[in-house]
Amino acid sequence: MPWDILLIFFVLGVIVPWRGRAKLQHLLAKPRVEPAERLSLYRSTIAFQWVATAVAAWRAWAHGFTLRQLGLAMPRRVALLIMTVLGAALIVTLQWLNLRRMGRSGVPVRRPLKALAERILPQSTRELIPFLALSVTAGLCEEFLYRGFAMAVLSRAGLPVGVVILLSSVIFGLAHLYQGRAGFVSTMVLGIFFGVSRAAFGSLVPAMVWHMGVDLVAGIAGPRYLIHRQVVTE
Predict the structure, then answer these.
(1) 68-126: pLDDT as tens digits
(2) Is 152 within the bounds of a domain?
(3) Is position 233 within any domain?
(4) Residue 135 and residue 212 in contact, taking contact as beta carbons nearer than 8 Å
(5) 34, 129, 147, 222 — which has fewest CB within 10 A?
């Protein structure tokens, strides 16, 4: 595997998890996170993800990966769009119900999640709009990086599809290790689901839309159920 491709995998598998965990430990150590700090977190994450995506796309192009190999094609467009819309409706509903269930739960294991939500989820309209931009960015960029670029590279290396999906999902889970062990596992499982859809449909489009849906609901319903505070206008 070329050195530049290995370097990108190192960034995705080591630097990104370390960076995310360090930032969140800093925020969790504070009794309260100011709105300006959350906005700064959203902006820096958006910038980082687009830069990482641009670099990965550049190196993929340099090594001769096609749009189809990267999952950027749209075969069987009508069927693909139908599955995308139906899947999005289902995933958004399940995410909303899951957040409501967690918000109503008094189990101690939920407390770290709620503490995390208080520090990173938007708590005003002023914060919500940039968070929505972050959600769209994550859907586009993370799916390209983990299900587009990573799966294309691992497939070219000759690995079976199942192994490709699993490895890319583990790296995806590590990127969300800041959410704790439960967050790593749940994100990895979600990554497997997205990876299967990418392999089955030959396109990243469904996973991109579904990913956006999960994050958008987190930004809208998360503060309501996990922080018990209505988003207000500022």
Answers:
(1) 999 998 888 898 999 999 999 999 999 999 888 887 776 654 667 778 888 899 989 99
(2) yes
(3) no
(4) yes
(5) 34
> Number of folded domains in the chain?
1
Task: Give the model's pLDDT for residue 32.
Answer: 86
3-class secondary structure, 232: strand
DSSP state, residue 217: H
> In whole angstroms, what is the distance from residue 208 CA to residue 197 CA?
10
pTM value is: 0.91
Query: Is 100 within the bounds of a domain?
Result: yes
Q: What pLDDT is attached to residue 110?
A: 63
Task: Identify any residues that bridge with 124 across adjacent strands, giving them in sequence order.
Answer: 232
Residues spanned by the domain of 119: 3-227
Q: Which of 124, 155, 138, 148 is nearest to 59 (CA)?
A: 148
**Phi, psi angles (nearest 5°) of residue 232:** -110, 160
119-169 tens-digit pLDDT: 899 989 999 999 999 999 999 999 999 999 999 999 999 999 999 999 999
Mean pLDDT of 24-30: 85
Quote the DSSP letter at residue 109: G
The residue assigned the tokens 């309209």 is: 125
Distance (Å, whole) CA 191 – CA 62: 26
Q: 138, 198, 135, 137: which is closest to 168 by C-alpha?
A: 198
Position 232 in a domain: no
Look up residue 65 and give its two tokens: 């990966």
